[in-house]
Specification:
This protein is α+β, with helices and mostly antiparallel strands and 421 residues long. The chain is built from 14 helices and 23 strands. The strands form six sheets. It has a four-stranded mixed β-sheet with strand order 21-22-1-23, with helices on one face. A four-stranded mixed β-sheet has the order 2-14-16-15. The protein has a four-stranded mixed β-sheet with strand order 4-5-3-13, with helices on one face. Bound molecules: uridine-diphosphate-N-acetylglucosamine and phosphoenolpyruvate (PEP).
Length: 421
């Protein structure tokens, strides 16, 4: 079993380059099903999740060529077939469910394994299905599968009870080639939705309003091949900003979008972290050498504070002066890292959707578990500053969403490495 080992206490320095966003590239790869021509995605983050969704497409008959030297992926889905998908692959990650909309649009039929829940919550798919039904799909669920059928998808007005990122993406993809106009109300506004829409529009789709609560999709007849570079990963960038704060270091983080990171930047400033934007706002100098103060955080849909940064902030607040309250409103079970941080000496009490954190002076290294992707990042951050050695297990969660995190941190001066034991 692979583990990440950190010998805590090193100050970090230097520059780190942020990769493209997992949550942007996964829907983009799913959307490639809608086009029969070559698509090239540049600056692809070579993550485990990217490998999984690429395998899903390959198993269905697509050409997927991953060039790890140039970080480029070439995809051509003209030979893709609506055969039964490999349930094991689909169940490996939630984002595989994003092929439902495009497959249904291309073939009028798609049968997929139910994605099921994951460590952070039950993660239902009712809003995805509500949207597809409104476009004319008939949906059956049985024996662990979802089967969607539609002769021809037709545009409609769809109100989402909650601005679900995945449901918004599935509906956008299903309606890009549908007949007529689709209007999604209370749509998710995340930057990754805007990126998916930019990608689709580059291919010839007619979609307006991405980044607002109302997205309007005029169905077109076909989409053309293109070359596209996804946006930077605001969560990876945020994780490195917190790394500077936790280790009381000064770092330069390159490859950011200040607007996308604003909720995180503003919260870090409130904690006492100094932030300077440079290089046309594409880089940040983060100075975490001041004493940090406790703050309140409430996770919300974008532009609120991102749930995917909650665990990392909990590590930092465990070492801040005074009390903090973290309220998680997006996922019902996203505090498992609290138990692991407590093992390292943090003072945290979880009560329902809130965690009450009382800052302590030090954490001490021990074996802890990456209970999910961001929880794993939070453990690494804790290990960077803890006394002695921290061993993080279940690192496959971390590999889903961080490109060589231990290499990037080692270059900044951390004593961190991967072992097999
Ligand atoms: C691959 C990807 O982009 N993942 C991101 C995406 O996940 P994902 O797209 O799964 O997140 P959603 O926005 O859909 O989920 C948010 C909340 O809505 C609920 N819900 C969702 C769909 C549905 O049909 N019914 C329903 O009740 C979920 O259970 C959850 O409580 O957005 C999340 C929220 O920003 C991020 O944490 C994930 O990193
Ligand atoms: C929850 C996350 O991702 P996913 O939706 O892919 O599980 C995440 O990136 O933190």
């Amino acid at each position: 079993m692979e583990k990440i080992v950190i010998n805590g206490g090193n100050e970090l320095s230097g520059e780190v380059n942020i990769s493209s966003a997992k949550n942007a590239v996964l829907p983009i790869i799913a959307a490639s099903i809608l086009c029969n021509e070559d698509l090239i995605i540049d600056n692809t983050p070579m993550l485990e999740d990217v490998a999984v969704i690429s395998d899903v497409l390959s198993e269905l008959g697509s050409k997927v060529i991953i060039n790890k030297n140039t970080d480029e992926i070439l995809i051509n889905t003209k030979d893709i077939k609506p055969v039964n998908t490999n349930s094991e692959l689909i169940r490996k990650m939630r984002a595989s469910f994003l092929i439902l909309g495009p497959m249904l649009s291309k073939f009028g039929i798609c049968k997929l394994s139910m994605p099921g829940g994951c460590n952070i919550g039950s993660r239902p798919i009712d809003l995805h299905l509500k949207g597809l039904k409104a476009l004319g799909a008939e949906i059956e669920i049985g024996h662990g599968f979802v089967e969607a059928k539609a002769k021809k998808l037709k545009g409609n007005r769809i109100y989402l009870d909650f601005p679900s990122v995945g449901a918004t993406e599935n509906i956008i993809m299903a309606s890009a080639l549908a007949e007529g106009t689709t209007i999604i109300e209370n749509a998710a506004e995340e930057p990754e939705i805007v990126d998916l829409v930019n990608f689709l529009n580059t291919m010839g789709a007619k979609i307006d309003g991405a980044g607002t609560g109302q997205i309007i999709i005029e169905g077109v007849d076909e989409l053309k091949g293109t070359r596209y570079t996804p946006i930077y990963d605001r969560i990876e960038a945020g994780t490195f900003l917190v790394a500077a704060a936790v280790t009381k270091s000064k770092l330069t983080v390159n490859g950011i979008n200040e607007e996308h990171l604003r909720p995180v930047i503003e919260k870090l400033k409130e904690c006492g972290v100094l932030i300077e934007l440079i290089n046309d706002n594409k880089s940040i100098i983060v100075d975490g050498r001041n004493e940090r103060r406790g703050v309140s955080i409430k996770t919300l849909p974008y532009p609120g504070f991102p749930t995917d940064m909650q665990a990392q902030m909990m590590t930092m607040l465990s070492l801040a002066q005074g009390s903090s309250v973290i309220t998680e409103t997006i996922f019902e079970n996203r505090f498992m890292h609290a138990t692991e941080l407590i093992r390292m000496g943090a003072n945290i009490k979880v009560d329902g959707r809130s965690a009450f954190v009382e800052g302590v002076r030090r954490l001490s290294g021990c074996e802890v578990k990456a209970t999910d992707l961001r929880a794993g990042a939070a453990m690494i951050l804790a290990g960077l500053v803890a006394d002695g050695y921290t061993k993080v297990t279940d690192v496959y969660h971390i590999d889903r969403g961080y490109v060589r995190i231990e290499d990037k941190l080692r270059k900044l001066g951390a004593d961190i490495y991967r072992i097999n034991e």
